[in-house]
Structures are given as structure tokens and as C-alpha cells.
Amino acid sequence: MADPLWRQIAEDLRQKIESGELGADGKPLPTELELRERYSASRNTIRDAIKWLATRGLVYSRSGQGTFVTPKIEPFVTVLSQEAVQDESLEYTAAVLNRRREPSVSTPRVEIRRAEGLPADELRLPEEAMVLSRYQQRLIDGLPYSRQTTFYPMRLVQQGASRLMLAEDISTGAVGYLRDALGIAEAGRKDRISVRAPDAEETAFFGIPDDGSTPVYEIIRTGYDELGQPLRVTVTTYPADRNQFVMVSGKIPAETPGGQPTGTVESKEHQP
């Protein structure tokens, strides 16, 4: 028994997409009307074919713009270690360079705001207190891979960590700066990882579908000093179509510049 027409159309489109004949990465498919004429099919038949392709991650739709071929993006693996090594920005840059890829980070956007919701809860502040936030966008090879906002209690600025208020990179990382400027070391970290649909800003920045079909990872990291007092809370979001995570502990072999282990790795890998 022959496959229904919509399935035949979907298979033909799939082959053309995978061969590169139709709609290169990120480019639009022919319009619904063009596909109806090409295959002599009804609107519903074409829509069923497109839906089949979408459920397999080959295409995605943007409201009012059409249907696009899903870009093939090289995933980046972020290692989440149990040991606090250094500032996330320095870890990120080193890890990207180690894989022979090109990192870039935007100039920080610095704001002072009320400590409402998450910052108030994680930093143990009353909601009428003020916090300082530093927001940055992170790209690899020119493509957006993550967004990060870190919140600091204003007491750190009042104690002398004034560089946090400047819209510029801190070469030692903010964690190292707090240690050098105030003698306050980050003794521990707590990570909370969740998966959710992207908001409008994330959809626009990452260039992902606005229908929620590509979720984002959200990692909320709270850093504590030696007395258990929270120093900062960092919220980082990563689109799931280009990011993977590896949890490591104990002694493991080093990785090659391409990101591949040189031997057996005893770790748990989480990926979309």
C-alpha cells in the first residue's frame, strides 16, 4: 500500500533538505502556495507534510515569516565541575579556545535595581534592598550561544568593589576581583538547572523558533563566601539546539583541543 500523499511530499522535502538542494541552513522553504503548485496538493496535505518535518527538527516556523530549514549548529559542551575553579567568564573563554573556536563576549550592561524575586531570594535580601546587575551576551564563532546576568548585593560596592559598576570587562573575572579588592573569596557554589521555553528576548537573540520547540537551559549559580554568605547569583541561559553539558567529578583524562577525551572519561553527560 502506497504512503499517503502528505508523507510522500514530506519524504521528498526531507531528502532535498538533507542534500542541500532545498533551503540551505536557516533559509526559508518555498511558500505554502508554491508547494501546493509543485506537488499538486491541497493546503492541508502540505501542512501535514510540514508538520511531519517540524516534529523531526528539520524545519521550524516563525509567526508571519514562514517556514525555515533548521540550521545545523556545532554543539558546544560545557563542563560543570563540582570544584569551583575560577570565574565563569574566564572558564568559558579558556574552554572555547581549547576547542579551537573563537569566543566573544559583549561589553557588560550594568544596572542598579531593586532586589525583587530571584536576586532577593538567592542573596537573602529584603525586597526593598538594591542590587547591581551585570549582563553579557556570549558568542562562539559569531553565533550566540548564551546570555548571562550576575546580581551582586550593593554592600560589596559600598565596601570598595567599585569596578563592578563600570561597563567594562574585569580581566581577573569578578570572582577574582572580589578576592583581590576585598579579600573575600568564593568558597562554594550552588547550581540549579532547569529547562523552559524561551522568552521573547531569548528567541530574538538566539534566532530560535518562537513556538517554544527549542527550549533553553537555565543555570542559576549562587556563590558563597567562607561564612556561607551569598556573594552573587548568576543566571545563564543556553539554547538547547547548540549546547550540551557534562558533569565531572574526581580525576579524569584531559581533553584534546577538539574537545574529545584522550581516554576513558568517568562522567555523566546530559544533552538535548
The end-to-end distance, rounded to whole angstroms, is: 36 Å
Main sheet attributes: strand count, strand direction, barrel closure: 7 strands, antiparallel
Which CATH-level-2 architecture of the largest domain? Answer: 3-Layer(aba) Sandwich
What's the CATH C level of the largest domain?
Alpha Beta
Order of helices and strands: HHHEEEHEEHEEHHEHEEEE
Question: Helical region count?
Answer: 8
Structural category: alpha+beta
Low-confidence stretches: 261-272
Q: Averaging pLDDT over every residue, what do you get?
A: 87
The total tally of domains equals 2
Radius of gyration: 23 Å
* CATH fold descriptor of the largest domain: Chorismate lyase
What layout of secondary structure does this protein have?
Layout: H1 5-19, H2 32-39, H3 43-55, E1 59-62, E2 66-69, E3 76-81, H4 88-98, E4 103-105, E5 109-114, H5 118-123, E6 130-140, E7 143-153, H6 154-158, H7 173-182, E8 188-196, H8 200-206, E9 216-224, E10 230-239, E11 243-248, E12 267-270
Parallel strand pairs: 3-11
Antiparallel strand pairs: 1-2, 4-6, 5-6, 6-7, 7-10, 8-9, 9-10, 11-12
Helix pairs in contact: 1-3, 2-3
Structure, described:
The chain has 272 residues and is of the alpha+beta class. It folds into two domains: 5-69, Arc Repressor Mutant, subunit A (Orthogonal Bundle); 76-251 and 264-270, Chorismate lyase-like (Chorismate lyase). Helix content is 28%, strand content 31%. It is built from eight helices and twelve strands. It has helices at 5-19, 32-39, 43-55, 88-98, 118-123, 154-158, 173-182, 200-206; strands spanning 59-62, 66-69, 76-81, 103-105, 109-114, 130-140, 143-153, 188-196, 216-224, 230-239, 243-248, 267-270. The strands form three sheets. Strands 4, 5, 6, 7, 8, 9 and 10 form a seven-stranded antiparallel sheet that branches. Strand 1 (59-62) and strand 2 (66-69) form a beta hairpin. Helix 1 crosses helix 3 (43-55) and helix 2 (32-39) packs across helix 3 (43-55). It is elongated, with a radius of gyration of 23 Å. The two termini are 36 Å apart. The model is unreliable at 261-272 (pLDDT under 50).
